[in-house]
Every structure is written in structure tokens, then in C-alpha cells.
Design goal:
Elements lengths: L2 E2 L1 E4 L5 E4 L6 E5 L6 E4 L6 E6 L6 E3 L17 E3 L3 E3 L5 E5 L5 E8 L10
Length: about 120
């Protein structure tokens, strides 16, 4: 189950973008040089990903296994340390790092709650 995104007010009464504590999240410590994957659960349209300090985690959300960069430019479909992204239910997210980095993937429901327009 995903956590619905809720607009909140700050100390001055202004509307702000605040995330509630998330009900559905997954944590993992990556094994160096080994890709790990997770499938986006039902009632989710956004992920919020956090990383341990100094992490260099490559993420592929195009259905391919994440790969580490090489010594030449290439289009691997991977992004370095993405934070917030729109996703679809059933989409596979693949993660890889050359170190034992810790990541936390939070599943949120934002757009279907009427707070935005899904791309």
C-alpha cells in the first residue's frame, strides 16, 4: 500500500509540499557490482529514493538491468542517484553500485489524489 501525498502548511500558514511518513517502503544494502530490482506496487505513481551518504547508485527504470558506467560514453538508460520520479504500477526499478550502499525506496500516491497532473 502506498502513502497518499498530502499538502501541508508550514509555521507561517503557507501551503508546502510535505511528505507524510511512508507506509510502503523498501530498504536494501546493495552488494557491490550486483544489480537489485524491485517492482512498483499497486496504488503508486511516485517514488522517493534516499541513499546513504556518499552513495553512487545507478538506477534503471526502463525495464533493463542497471549497469555501472564504463570508460566510454554510452546510453545505458541509467540515472545517478535519482530522488523523486513518476512511475507506473508493475514497473521494474533496477539499482547497482560499486559499493555496499544503502537505499530506501518510498512508494507514494500523488497524482491520483488530485494534487498534480501525471506526465
Amino acid at each position: 500500500m502506498s502513502t497518499p501525498f498530502v499538502l501541508q502548511k508550514d509555521l507561517n500558514g503557507s501551503v508546502t509540499f510535505g511528505f507524510p511518513f511512508v507506509v510502503s517502503h523498501q530498504n536494501v544494502t546493495l552488494t557491490p557490482n550486483v544489480a537489485q530490482s524491485i517492482i512498483v506496487p499497486e496504488a503508486t505513481d511516485t517514488v522517493l529514493i534516499t541513499y546513504s551518504g556518499g552513495s553512487n547508485v545507478w538506477v534503471n527504470a526502463l525495464g533493463n538491468t542497471a549497469t555501472l558506467p564504463t570508460g566510454t560514453f554510452s546510453d545505458t538508460g541509467c540515472e545517478l542517484n535519482p530522488v523523486v520520479r513518476s512511475v507506473k504500477v508493475g514497473q521494474t526499478l533496477s539499482f547497482i553500485s560499486n559499493a555496499a550502499d544503502q537505499i530506501n525506496v518510498n512508494f507514494l500516491l500523488i497524482y491520483n489524489m488530485g494534487y498534480g497532473v501525471q506526465p
